[in-house]
Amino acid sequence: MGTCGPEGPTLKRLNDIGAHRLRAIKRETQRVASSVQTARKAESEMSKSSSDLYELLLQLSEPISEALSKAPYAPSQSATVSVKSLLEPLLARKPNPNFDGANLRASIRDFTLACALLSASQSSAHELLSWIPKDLAAAADSAFLEISGAYSDYGGKSGDGLVAELMAEVMPVLKERIKESSIDKSADGDEVSAASARVPVGFAVVAAYQFRWFVTQIDYSHSGKLCALAVPCGLTALDHWSPEVKGQGMISFIHIAKSVDAAHLAWCQDAILDACRQNIASSDEIWHLVVEMSVLVVTRTQQSDPRSAWFDKILNEMLSHLERQPRNKERRVAWLRYVEPLFNGVGLVLLAHFRRIFPLFFKWIHADDDETVLLVLKQIETVIKLTWIRNTPYVERLVDELATLHKEAALKRSREEIRNLVSRILILLHQCKGLQFEEAWGKHRNDPNLATIAPSLSERRSTTVFQ
Predict the structure, then answer these.
(1) Ramachandran class of 159: left when φ > 0, alpha when ψ lies in -120 to 50, beta otherwise
(2) How wide is the angle at C-alpha 165 spanned by C-alphas 161 and 166, nearest 5°?
(3) By CB count within 10 A, which of 276, 383, 411, 439 is most buried?
(4) Burial of 48 (0-12, 13-18, 19+ CB in 10 A)
C-alpha cells in the first residue's frame, strides 16, 4: 500500500491534463465547425447576392431593350454599321442557365457599354447616334446609376468605382476597335493603307463615344488609374482620320487635363502634346476642341517653365493656321476664347511672338461681329498686363487702331462694352508707356469724336504727375 501513495496524485494530474486537452480539442472542433458554417453561409449569401444582381440586370435591361426595339431606325443607304444591331446583344434579355461570376461580370460590362453609347448620344448630332430618342438615353442613365448602387452592395464600389473597375477590361477593346479603321503606315513609311477599306469607320465612331463616356465618368480620386488606362486609347482616337473620332478623343483629354494632377501626366505629356500639335490642323468643326485641349494640356504640364519648347511649338502652330485663315470667324473666336491661359503661362516670353500676334489683333479689332471685337480687346488687355508691351514698335499703331474702333463702336450693338474696354486699354497704355503714349495720342487729343475718352486720360495723367 505504501508504494501506491505517490502514484495517486501523479495519475490524477495526468487525468486532469488529459481532460483539459480534450476540452481544448472540443473547443477547436466547435470553432472550426462554426467557421465552416459561417463560410458556407457567406457563400450562400454571395451566391444569392449574385443572383439578385443578375436578376436586377435583367429587369433593367428589359425596358431598355423594348424601347430600343421600338425606336424608329432608318440608316442611310450608305451606312455600313447598324448601331441598333450593336446595342441589342449588349442587353441581357433572358436568364442564363450557365450563370456564374464570370458571366455576371461580362453581363455588367456589356450593359455598361450599352448605357455608355445610349447616354453619349445625347451630345451627338452624328447620323449613327442622332436617331436614339432622348428618353431612351435618359433611361440608360437612370439604369446605370441603379446597377452601380446595387454593385456597391454586392461588394464593389459605387458610382465611378464601377466604371473604374471596368476600364481595365474595356479600354484595350475600345482602343483596338478605333485603331481598326485608322490609316496605317507601312514599316518603311512609303506606303499608306487605309484600314477603313476593310473595317467601316462607324465602329470607330461608336467606340470613340463609348470611350469618351467612360473617361468623363471618372473623378479626381481615380486620376492615376484614369491616365494609365485612358491615355493610350485617347491617343489612338487623336491619331484617327475621322473628325468625329478625333473630337471624342479631344473631349476626353480636356476632361483629363481639367481633373488630374499634372504629375499624373508626366509620363505621357510629350506624346499628348505632340498629338495636340499635329491636330491643330484639324477641320473647322473640331478646331475649338483642339484649341481648348492644347491650351489646357500645355499649361497644366509646362506651367513651371514659360520658356518650354512646347509653349513655343503649340503657339506657333496655332498662329500659322490663323494667319492662313484670318477671316475664319469660328477659328479666331475659338482661339481668342481659350488662349488666355497660354498667354499667362508664357508671360514675358510673349514679346517674342508680338510680330505675329499683333498683326492678327489689328485685323480682328475691326471685325464685323461684336464677339470677335470684344474677345480681341480682352486679349489685348491681357497681353499688355503681362508684358507691359516693352521694346515694341506697335504702340503707336495700337493707339491709332483703338481710337478708330472707339468711333466705329457707334454703329455696333455692344458699343458701351467696346468703348469701356477701349478706354481701359488706353489708360493701361498710358500707365506703361508714358511719353511714348503721349506722342501717339497727340494726334487724337482734339478729335471731338473721342471727347469722352479725354477726361479719363487727363485724370490719369494728373494722377501720375502728382504721384
Answers:
(1) left
(2) 120
(3) 276
(4) exposed
Residue 137 neighbours by CB under 8 Å, 6+ apart: 118, 119, 121, 122
End-to-end CA distance of the chain: 125
At a CB cut-off of 8 Å and minimum separation 6, what does 465 contact? none
Q: What is the pTM of this model?
A: 0.84
**Chunked mean pLDDT (size 10), the chain, 467 residues:** 54 63 66 50 51 91 95 85 94 73 88 97 93 96 92 63 89 96 62 59 97 89 76 97 97 93 90 97 95 97 94 97 94 98 96 96 96 98 93 91 94 93 94 90 87 71 40
Q: Give yes or no for a contact between 425 and 381, defined as CB atoms under 8 angstroms apart.
A: yes
Residues forming a β-bridge with 185: 192
Distances (CA, A) of 299 to 224, 225, 340, 387, 399: 19, 22, 10, 18, 31
Q: What is the DSSP letter of 185?
A: E
For 49, other C-beta atoms within 10 Å of its C-beta total 15
Tell me the Cα Rg of the chain: 34
* Residue appearing with cell numbers 481633373: 259
Q: Measured on CA atoms in the order 201, 202, 206, 209, is the torsion positive or negative?
A: positive
Q: What is the 3-state secondary structure (H, E, C) of 189-225?
A: CCCEEEHHHCCCHHHHHHHHHHHHHHHHCCCHHHHHH
> How far apart are alpha carbons 228 and 208 in whole angstroms?
17
- Kindly state the cell numbers that stand for 338: 481659350
